[in-house]
Amino acid sequence: MMRGLLELFTIFDWITPSIGFIQDFKNDPTLLQTNSWTFFFDYGDLLNAGYNAVDVERLLHQHGIKTWGSQITGGEYFFSVPIGQTELATNILNQRGIVSKY
Fold this sequence. Notes:
By secondary structure, the protein is α+β, with helices and mostly antiparallel strands. It has one domain (2-95): Alpha-Beta Plaits, CATH 3.30.70. The chain has helices spanning 2-10, 15-27, 43-48, 53-62, 86-95; strands spanning 36-42, 68-73, 76-82.
């Protein structure tokens, strides 16, 4: 019930996407994602696995991986990392059983 209510209110959130856009532009000015990779997760699956958005980003930061543009929208959680750190981030997440949709 509470999760459904929170997801309903996200449709009215225009601030978070705006901040994400600014962060994307700051970290990958081409806006074509030639310098970054975006990971997508089903947020419900992530929660069921015992993780939340803060846990995932904290885990990556502990390994020196920069993240930005994180958002939870429409049941999806996503964030970007520098293209050169994509493989390392994937390995760290997979070791914890956190698997990206794409």
